[in-house]
Amino acid sequence: MNFDKSIIDNHEQKYQLSCIPSAVEMVLKLLGKVGIDYYDLQESWKNKANGNFSDFDGKTIKNITFQKLFGNQRCPNFPLQNLFIKIDEELNSDRFVIISLALNTSWHMFVVYDKFGDEYKAFTKNWKETQYINNVKETVERMQGTDILVYIINK
Fold first, then answer.
1. Which residues contact 95 (CB under 8 A, 6 or more apart)?
2. Would the pLDDT of 2 be above 90?
3. Second label for 99, Cα 20 to 30 Å away, from 23, 58, 145, 154?
């Protein structure tokens, strides 16, 4: 997994509600599957208000197949440990994980790219601004769960 900060810094979220396709585009760019000027997913999504990870579940883009996991209801019984085990497996396999997080009063998509100790590091775009968080696990625990978008690279 090659986290190239310059690729992310050059990317932008084009629309208020396009953070899901923006996150997918960032992963495709980091994997070298699309060029730096690739914004096709956001351009077709625009400000789709009812979108979620299901829109990319099973979809193959540039030989990368995405899968939505942990669509469970957020609650005290959410399988948090299984979620964290899956994130660890993905990171150990050199794959990024797209994750949905509730921050302040809204939801936003982040890309988990590293682990330090028992916590995860993630980045996102807020328009042109690159933002980082270092408390993904803590945030997910407070939310009582969340869904993720993972991928496989097809040969």
1. 1, 150, 151
2. no
3. 154
Question: What are the start-end ranges of the H helices in 31-147?
Answer: 40-45, 80-92, 136-143
The predicted pLDDT at position 1 comes to 76
Phi then psi for 33, rounded to 5 degrees?
-85, -20
Provide the 3-class DSSP secondary structure of residue 155: coil
The closest of 65, 41, 47, 54 to 153, measured between CA atoms, is: 65
Question: Could you identify the residue written with the tokens 């400000």?
Answer: 47
Q: What is the pTM of this model?
A: 0.96
| SS3 annotation, 70-97 | CCCCCCCCCCHHHHHHHHHHHHHCCCCE
Tokens 């299901």, located at residue: 54
